[in-house]
Amino acid sequence: MMINEKYKGLNLRAVTYNRCSTDEQESALEVQISQSADICRAYGWTLIEQYIELESGRSTENRSRYLDMIADMKKNKFDVIIIKSLDRLTRSTKDWNDFQQEMFENKKRLYIYMEGSFFELSQQFMYNIKNSFDSYFSKQLSEKLKNSHKNRQDNLSGVNISRKMFGWDKVGKNEYVVNEQEAGYIRYAVQMLKEGHGFYSISQRLYEMGARNTLGKPIQASVWRQMCLSPKLYGCFVMRKTVHNFELRRNELQPPENWIYYENALPPIISKQDFTEIQTIIKSRFKPDCRSAYSGKYPLSGKIVCGCCGTPFHRLISTFHNGDKAAMWKCGKAQREGREKAERLGYGCNCECVREDKLMELIGEASEKQFAVLFDSNNGIIERCLKIIRKAIKESSSTAKLDKLKAEYTRQIERKEFFLDKLVDGLISESDFKLKNDKLSVDIKRLSVEIAVLEADLSNLTDNEKRLERIKEALENTDIIAQAKGSAVLGKIEKIIVNNDATVTIVYDKYKLIGLKHLQNEDIDLGNLFSVTVPYSGFAEKKARTGDEKKRLYEIIKSGKGDLTYNEYAELLGENVTKKHVASRLRQLIKADIVRRNEEGLLVVTGEYRDGI
To answer: How far apart are CA 212 and CA 164, in angstroms?
Structure first.
């Protein structure tokens, strides 16, 4: 390190920027940190902060400490930046030019301690050339790494996967062994696929058997589908799906014809024949025309929200005990993540589903009663609002003030014309006229603004009064209660909140119902009149039915019949019970630690049944 004596007398606030790329030794970064701090002490400068990071120099967009330094530069927190060499700052020509612009605009200095001097404007051309060489070197290095990676792929000389793979354990470079427990789950999933089960059922069943991801959470149905579609299952690893673009700094997807299939790269979990068979099964189920078929299609779409987590409800079709199918609405979070459990709080939701036809019936009944209160001819919301508006108009001082302002406006216009006549007749000088005319123009403009504001306020009140009078007249000739029973009422509903206490809250849009805006008065609370909470009987019915089925399923398992299929359990529970119902009741029994699967996969009783589980 070179120490220039002439810089010791400078009283500067200094910061250091220290960076090593990810492929360099971290010990080199420690040396940089120490050396830059020593330089600061040698010159007697005040060390404000050291910005340190281990990141590539090809771009600054992902370097948080570099961005922090630029932000602090703009806040004038320091005078000089100390770096080891220019390539520690950046190897991108564009980023170097942007840095120079920031540095010059904020009047900061750059000290390069390997050269023992400050960066000067006169040396800009030389440093630009040096930065171009650094950028070229970085690109060449990237190309070498890419070619090395490509040669390894072309020669099929092994796969070195850094991330954890479900089903395999890494024991060394390019060396993997089958994780028999995880592989057992995969083979079980393949068998269920062949038996006709869907991925949701597979996900639920394997969760019951103990399958978990690296975070200890359930493996979602979509993840099981992705795993079953991967050729890794029979030992084939697909390479060169993406290629890194140095200029654009991103990985670009390659066409399938460029992919490399590395056979026998991993020890297989299933045979290639089994893999081909399940691919046919999975692809035969794909129906492209069904994607997003119900998005925003129904009158209730976007209106129903969960009272537990605030997530919108989604529509689905369910099969009931009598074999009929009906539309149901379910919390989107519960649909994606399942039910919330003690071991994974915050993940999933326990809000109940609602049946569409029962909900529509409930909306009609609740709206009929609520509208009878809202639109009562004597004490309803229309009459109450009219009284408030009429009182506001009567007691408002705006009318008198408006008349006074208009009179003053007219007087000022007349004065302006008077002085103009004086100028024409030669009774006042042009300079005197200009002085008075300018003053009058300012007053006239101010008065016109105040008049416009007051007129808008009064117009708002009178418009609301006229609108309410029209609504009141229409209500006298219309059966508003009959409208509440129809689907037209949905257009007047802002949202429907499904609570987890067997109630539903219906919130009406007051502006769509009575057309009022900007109506505010402390004597009336409009909000509580436009919301109603009513019980939803479907919750109690479902709870009683599922409780009975859970108890009978428990008794069947307790009697020693723990080796039956879901369809066989469904037949024992009743002709209207499906295997989906059995799966749901069984999950609840397992969750309550009353039933579990043993090592042989058989269901066994582990506790006493109790009501309310």
So the answer is: 13
DSSP letters, 531-576, are EEEEE-HHHHHHHHHHHHHHHHHHHHHHTT--S--HHHHHHHH-TT
C-alpha pair distances (Å), 107 with each of 101, 102, 170 = 10, 8, 53
Three-state DSSP class for residue 469: helix
pLDDT of residue 497: 92
Whole-angstrom Cα distance, residue 440 to residue 434? 10
* Chain centroid to CA 106: 37
Inter-residue contact 113 to 38 (CB < 8 Å)? no
Instruction: Using alpha carbons, list the distances in angstroms from residue 108 to 40, 99, 111, 127.
Output: 16, 11, 10, 17
pTM: 0.35
Tokens of 271: 């045979």
**What number of other Cβ atoms are within 10 A of residue 204's Cβ?**
18
Count of Cβ atoms closer than 10 Å to residue 491 Cβ: 9
pLDDT tens for each residue of 448-460: 767 766 665 666 5
Compute the distance between CA of residue 332 and CA of residue 233 in angstroms, rounded to an integer.
32
| Residues contacting 213, CB < 8 A, separation 6+ | 166, 219, 223
The type of residue at 582 is V
313: nearest Cα among 358, 360, 354, 277: 354
Tokens of 454: 């007051």
pLDDT band, very low/low/confident/very high, at 505 (cuts 50, 70, 90): very high
What contacts 24+ positions apart, CB below 8 Å, involve 235-242? 235/263, 235/264, 235/265, 235/266, 235/267, 235/268, 236/261, 236/262, 236/263, 236/264, 236/265, 236/266, 237/159, 237/261, 237/262, 237/265, 237/266, 238/262, 239/153, 239/159, 240/150, 240/153
Q: Can you say whether the dihedral through the CA atoms of 32, 33, 34, 37 is positive or negative? A: positive
Given this model, what pLDDT does residue 145 score? 56
Per-residue pLDDT tens for 588-608? 888 888 888 888 888 888 888
Distance CA 78, CA 63 (A): 20
Return the structure tokens found at 65. Answer: 């400490």
What is the rounded end-to-end Cα distance, in angstroms, of the chain? 74
Q: Where are the alpha helices (DSSP H) in 112-172?
A: 124-154
Q: Residue 199 and residue 193: Cα distance in Å, rounded? A: 8
CA dist., res. 462 & res. 398, Å (int): 13
Domains of the chain (ranges, CATH numbers): 5-148 (3.40.50.1390), 168-286 (3.90.1750.20), 352-535 (no CATH), 537-613 (1.10.10)
- Cβ atoms of 498 and 304 within 8 Å: the answer is yes
Q: Are 86 and 130 in contact (CB under 8 A)?
A: yes
Question: Which uninterrupted H or E stretch holds 272?
Answer: helix 272-284
Of 207, 323, 52, 252, residue with least CA distance to 590: 207
